[in-house]
Design a protein that fits this description.
- By secondary structure, the chain is mostly helical.
- The chain has helices at 4-12, 14-24, 42-47, 49-59, 69-90, 95-102, 106-113, and strands at residues 28-30, 63-65.
- Helices cover 65% and strands 5% of the residues.
- The two termini are 17 Å apart.
Length: 116
């Protein structure tokens, strides 16, 4: 299943998602089922009424913890590192050498290669 971030990004696009997280990332927000332009919530103020309504239709009535920009960056770096480990292994490089190149422990390399 896609993460909340991925679901929101699919729904409203990467630029609007970036704006949302830059302004509200790291916070718990209540998502209104029917946002109002007359009484805007934080999401409506950041994204505008149309995008807020899209999010409201998908997640309305829920309290969600929006990931911070820093958290997303760490996740992306972790995915990049995992990808690099897999690519190096596919090229026949041993775990010790991969650990040195990627600047992590051999144990982490083995964990990634074993799919954990």
């Amino acid at each position: 299943m896609a993460s909340l971030f991925e679901q929101i990004e699919t729904l409203i696009g990467p630029d609007a998602t970036a704006a949302l997280l830059e302004n509200l990332g790291g916070a718990r927000v209540f998502i209104r089922t029917m946002p109002s332009a007359e009484n805007p919530d934080a999401i409506t103020r950041v994204l505008g009424i149309e995008m807020a309504r899209l999010i409201g239709r998908a997640f309305g009535g829920e309290k969600v913890d929006l990931p911070s920009v820093a958290t997303l960056e760490r996740r992306r770096q972790s995915l990049d590192r995992r990808g690099e480990i897999s690519r190096l292994f596919e090229r026949g490089i041993r775990a010790n050498e991969i650990a040195t190149r990627v600047r992590c422990s051999r144990r982490y390399v083995l964990k990634v290669l074993n799919g954990k």
